[in-house]
Write a structure and sequence with these properties.
The chain is α+β, with helices and mostly antiparallel strands. It has two domains: about 180 residues, FAD/NAD(P)-binding domain (3-Layer(bba) Sandwich), CATH 3.50.50.60; about 160 residues, Polyamine Oxidase, Chain A, domain 2 (Alpha-Beta Complex). About 30% of the residues lie in helices and about 20% in strands. Strands 1, 2, 10, 11, 12, 13 and 21 form a seven-stranded mixed β-sheet that branches. Bound molecules: flavin-adenine dinucleotide (FAD).
Length: about 425
């Protein structure tokens, strides 16, 4: 038997975890798995309750799917960008407390929105867009929206289909056949803020106050004794309860082994949810702007309306940020990072001319669906599975709490799901609900 380190030493070391035999006592009150928005919300709530916690994060950084990429000179948010429904989003308050500037998205300067089909410029003006009707169908009286796919929900009016496909792929990152209309309809809306220094910068500034173990993936959780026994790449820790904020695709793929197996309702919850493939790629340019002003968007579609949106010079930077989702994203990402960048530069050269190649400097790819610690952008309920979030949110034996964007709810309303604000609320409310 190896000597057991004291908790203080273990927390301070941040390197090696103690190898524990089945001790009767607990090492900590709460084991938090994942240091994204939800994990940090949970940690703050533990501190507020005077409960101890140990937080494990698989990556070498905190923030999870909120990450500001600085590798291309100017910062850009590779994951979350908007502080949605800012009136009630905890990150808006945190930004205020930390004196980090936010700006109302509606007040930002807008560039042109240029439309292309297969690389050829087309006039969007004069084309009827059906967004008013789509928005009525998906947003009005969410309780009445049926738990069927996006496509079935508009099956009576084929004119709505192109707009619905675009919305599904570019807002949820997924094909419309795989999305529950009801799940989408209940999402909250409100004012959106942006963080000029980056949403990821905000989250990591906030997270700097919390102890955590980076580069420490959790492999297994036993929950058959009193409390939980959590095994990581560096050792095992016993806690009274675990808050698991790991993305649902990672859990559904067996990223953490549970002993005993999770109850059927939890498994149904997990398998009733999917994750889309919304992806972002930053492309750095040398300063040549092709005569286009900051915040110009080029929306280039090809077969079946799937496409890539290029946002040019956001915040007056020398970057182009490409955004794409659905199966097209999976296809583009299958080429590997260098292939993805080359394909996007080719695509942009088709829109703006061959000078693009000479002005291009380098790219940075964020294909979250291929990232082993997220395996997708954010969760959605599959058609017919609108109750999946509620199933997953039920605590297991008062010991395991699945808390993250996928289970984000306030008073049973899953309106905050999918977002960084919702994730924070989910982590915090799990930490507050644990009975000690
Ligand atoms: C392209 C894109 C755009 C987005 N846009 C927005 C937006 O504008 N606004 C918005 O609010 N939201 C947006 N989102 C969604 C938002 O980023 C997420 O909903 C939110 O960040 C999820 O937080 P979380 O804590 O639940 O999960 P995560 O941030 O994924 O945190 C979970 C953590 O668990 C870690 N982990 C995984 N497996 C293990 C393991 N075995 N052991 C230990 N740790 C593990 C992960 O590394 C991760 O850090 C976007 C996401 C993407 C990808």
């Amino acid at each position: 038997m190896r000597a057991r380190l004291s908790r203080r030493l273990f927390l301070a070391s941040g390197l090696a975890l103690p190898s524990l035999v089945r001790a009767q006592s607990f090492d900590t009150d709460v084991v938090i798995i994942g240091a994204g928005a939800a994990g940090l919300g949970a940690a703050q709530a533990c501190v507020a309750r005077g409960k101890s916690y140990v937080m494990f994060e698989a990556r070498e950084r905190m923030g999870g799917r909120v990450f500001t990429d600085h590798s291309l000179g100017a910062a850009f948010d590779a994951g979350a960008y908007y502080i949605h429904w800012a009136e009630r989003n905890p990150w808006a308050d945190i930004a205020r407390d930390l004196k980090i500037e936010t700006m109302d998205d509606g007040a930002l300067p807008r560039g042109a929105w240029l439309r292309f089909e297969d690389g050829a410029r087309i006039e969007a003006a004069g084309r009827r867009n059906y967004f008013g009707e789509i928005s009525r169908r998906f947003d009005d009286e969410p309780a009445r929206v049926p738990d069927i796919s996006f496509t079935e929900h508009v099956a009576d009016n084929p004119d709505l289909l192109p707009g619905v496909r675009g919305m599904a792929r570019m807002s949820l990152g997924e094909e419309p056949e795989r999305l529950s209309a009801k799940d989408y309809a209940r999402l909250w809306s409100g004012d959106d803020l942006i963080v000029p220094q980056g949403y990821g910068t905000l989250v990591s500034r906030f997270g700097a106050a919390f102890q955590l173990h980076l580069s420490t993936p959790v492999h297994a959780i036993r929950w058959d004794g009193a409390g939980v026994e959590v095994t990581t790449s560096k050792g095992t820790v016993r806690g009274r309860a675990a808050i698991i904020t790991v993305p649902v695709s990672v859990l559904a793929k067996g990223g953490i082994a549970f002993t005993p197996q999770l109850p059927m309702r939890t498994q149904e919850g997990l398998h009733g949810l999917g994750m889309g493939a919304l992806s972002k790629v930053g492309l750095q340019f040398s300063g040549h702007r092709f005569g286009l002003s900051a915040n110009t968007n080029l929306w280039d579609t090809s077969r079946d309306g799937a496409g890539v949106n290029f946002e040019l010079w956001p915040g007056d930077s020398n970057l182009v940020v490409a955004l794409f989702g659905g199966d097209l994203a999976r296809e583009i990402l299958s080429q590997g990072d260098a292939g993805v960048v080359a394909a996007l530069v080719d695509r942009l050269a088709r829109l703006l001319g061959e000078d693009v190649r000479g002005a291009f400097v380098k790219g940075s790819v964020h294909g979250w669906v291929n990232d082993p610690w997220s395996l997708g952008c954010y969760s959605h309920a599959l058609p017919g599975q609108a109750d999946a979030r509620a199933k997953l949110a039920e605590p297991v034996a008062e010991r395991l709490w699945f808390a993250g964007e996928a289970t984000a709810a306030v008073d049973g309303d899953f309106g905050p799901a999918m977002t960084a604000g919702g994730a924070f609320l989910a982590g915090a409310s799990a930490a507050r609900a644990i009975k000690f």
